[in-house]
Write a structure and sequence with these properties.
The complex is a heterodimer of chains A (168) and B (441). Helix content of chain A is 52%, strand content 15%. Chain A has helices spanning 50-76, 84-91, 93-105, 114-129, 139-150, 156-167, and strands spanning 6-13, 23-31, 36-44. A 3-stranded antiparallel beta sheet of chain A has the order 1-2-3, covered by helices on one side. Chain B has helices at 26-32, 374-378; strands at 3-6, 39-43, 55-59, 64-68, 95-99, 102-106, 109-112, 119-121, 128-132, 135-138, 147-149, 158-162, 165-168, 175-184, 187-188, 197-211, 222-224, 230-237, 246-248, 259-264, 275-279, 282-287, 291-292, 300-305, 315-316, 320-324, 333-338, 350-356, 366-369, 395-396, 403-408, 419-427, 433-436. The chains are: A alpha+beta (168), B mainly beta (441).
């Protein structure tokens, strides 16, 4: 599997100008899959260079294809991101409930300093805001597991198993 | 109706009913504005502070959010925040606006920034947002830092942006939408970047109308991108365009389940009254260089097909409505011209499609086509050459190797009523160009 790229690019410019002096241009870019990507007809003012516009568009298309390929490679390796529910399934119900209880009450936890509460609050909000959980786990998620470990809500063996599952 | 003041200089004392006691966070003001009719008044010059967290709010249905100068009194003076003040979180965090009903916003600037952040309006769907003189500005520089309207699962969503601006942080960003989005006036914020593709889909079915939305700064980029997960119709009326702007990018679905775009009276510069239609199978643009000399207002419809047309799924132009008062048998036809060859097209390559009311006592119309009979096509029979037209000499800008022809209704029509016949051209030839005089005679 390799990234799709633009193989050939060509444009046609009308021989006859429009009433305002502009010209219609059509670009056709053929990619390595044999697909023809057509852009236009678009109106071009006199003096503008359709070849330069076409070349710039081919570069953008190749950049888009490269991004798409990178995403496909990641998915093909089987590491599609976890949903939040997938992640919770890894914790087990005991740890999951204990974690929820901690985050529900940490603001009034006298054992935490204000600075610690700031870190916990923001870290937990960032985790909740994430649309999905990257695999392998981000440093931030590992820090969350480390917090649960320090609170005695999870064991190192559980963390190791979750890590292994995220990298599988 | 309660006024809820929101300012970076307030004392943050509930119920925030004066400038002095104004809420210092937008979220607190939103929570306080809990009844329909309540008005959140945001200090246009000293907005509420941001925070190191995404701004996710669910607005009470029926409230208004108005940016105002801070007079110190209860008098509200609506004043747009513009680009120098905004409501938004710290860099790297997003904004999500939700409402299950209707909300009106005037003069508010919502802004996110950093490397990656999203502004999402109607994430939970079913809201009706009216933005009036607002600026929605995603200044984040990452390629996925979108401005998004509507739900990805295609749930109910409506937003109107009136005299409002859209701001972007890089060329790689875009506005993605689902549901219905109306733009009246406004344009792209000049203090940001120009997206290489402005509009793209967010899933489901989408409809966008833009009236007087300024696109003249879009450069040689693309107005509507490749819609792969949603079916959309976008209509632009009286919008100034930029030279070299591609209206509809290549649609990889290769079918009309992607996006289609209509342009009405939009152009680069001062030419009035031009028309355009674009879908995955082809496009129609007004052509004032090549046209039937005695035809429709000094222009033709230039039809350009993509590689995706076939006999069964041709590109079809929008309908031409032609007034007819003849109630005896007629065989209406439309003149066409090709400029790349003197060879005639056949009725397998392209044909006319017409509708007319031929039955009294009903408004029902009957469909007519001059396409090659399906049985003949399936048998591999070559198409019949289309009839000759008025002649290449009757066209302006015909070029050196033209062919003049016409497409008709295939069989005679006896209209039952004076009224509009409808006609359109269907083209099955891929990657072809044909000029159509948009009149049925």
């Amino acid at each position: 599997m390799s990234a799709v790229t633009i193989q050939t690019s060509a444009y046609t410019q009308d021989a006859t100008p429009q009433a305002d002096g502009s010209y219609y241009v059509v670009e056709r870019h053929t990619d390595t899959l044999g697909r023809v990507l057509q852009f236009g007809p678009y109106s071009l003012s006199p003096g503008m260079d359709p070849n330069a516009i076409m070349v710039a568009r081919a570069q953008r298309l190749n950049a888009d294809f490269a991004n798409q390929y990178a995403n496909e490679v990641q998915a093909a390796q089987g590491r599609t991101p976890w949903t939040h529910l997938d992640f919770r399934d890894q914790l087990g119900s005991t740890t999951e409930q204990a974690m929820d209880a901690f985050f529900a009450g940490f603001e009034t936890n006298s054992g935490l300093t204000p600075a610690q509460k700031d870190l916990v609050r923001t870290g937990w909000r960032r985790f909740q805001e994430a649309s999905f959980i990257d695999r392998p786990l981000r440093t931030e998620v590992l820090s969350l597991l480390g917090l649960l470990l320090s609170l005695g809500l999870i064991t190192q063996a559980q963390i190791d198993a979750i890590n292994a599952a995220s990298a599988a | 109706m309660s006024l809820v003041f929101c300012s970076g200089t307030g004392s943050n004392t509930a119920p925030y009913n004066t400038w002095a006691t104004a809420a210092t966070t937008f979220a607190a003001a939103v929570t306080q504005a809990s009844s329909a009719g309540d008005v959140i008044v945001v200090d246009a010059a000293n907005p509420p502070a941001g925070a190191a967290a995404s701004l996710v709010v669910t607005l009470t249905a029926g409230i208004s959010i108005i940016a105002s100068t801070n007079s110190g009194t209860a008098t509200i003076t609506p004043t747009s925040m513009g680009g120098s003040a905004w409501v938004g979180p710290n860099a790297g965090y997003g904004i999500q606006l939700n409402c299950s009903g209707k909300v009106y916003l005037y003069g508010i600037t919502f802004k996110v920034s950093g490397t990656s952040a999203t502004i999402y309006v109607n994430y939970n769907g079913s809201g009706h947002f009216e933005f009036d003189n607002c600026l929605i500005w995603n200044a984040a520089t990452g390629g996925s830092s979108y401005i998004i309207f509507g739900q990805s699962n295609g749930g109910a969503s409506y937003a109107q942006l009136k005299n409002s601006q859209l701001g972007f942080g890089s060329a790689s960003t875009a506005l993605r939408f689902a549901g219905q989005l109306d733009l009246v006036g406004g344009g792209i914020y000049s203090g940001g970047s120009i997206p290489s593709t402005l509009f793209n889909g967010q899933g489901g079915t989408a409809l966008l109308t833009a009236n007087g939305f300024d696109l003249s700064g879009m450069g040689t980029n693309t107005l509507v991108g490749n819609f792969t997960t949603s079916t959309a119709t976008l209509r632009f009326t009286q919008c100034p365009l930029s030279s070299g702007l591609v209206i509809l990018g290549s649609q990889s679905l290769g079918s009309k389940s992607a996006a289609k775009v209509y342009l009405s009276d939009c152009s680069v510069g001062s030419v009035q009254g031009l028309f355009g239609y674009y879908d995955a199978l082809g496009s129609v643009v007004s052509d004032t260089g090549t046209y039937l000399t005695a035809g429709a207002a000094g222009q033709s419809w230039k039809v350009t097909t993509t590689a995706y047309c076939t006999f069964g799924t041709p590109f079809v132009t929008p309908w031409v409505d032609q007034w007819n008062s003849t109630l005896t048998a007629i065989t209406p036809a439309m003149e066409i011209l090709r400029t790349d060859s003197t060879s005639a097209y056949t009725n397998q390559d392209m044909w006319g499609e017409f509708t007319a009311k031929v039955t009294t006592g009903t408004t029902d119309s009957t469909f007519y086509s001059s396409r090659q009979a399906l049985v003949d096509y399936l048998a591999g029979t070559a198409g019949a050459a289309l009839a000759a037209g008025v002649g290449t000499g009757s066209w302006t800008g015909a070029g050196a190797t033209p062919w003049s022809g016409k497409v008709d209704s295939g069989s005679s029509i006896t209209p039952a009523y004076a009224g509009y016949l409808r006609a359109r051209l269907a083209v099955a030839v891929p990657s072809a160009t044909i000029y159509l005089n948009p009149q049925a005679a």
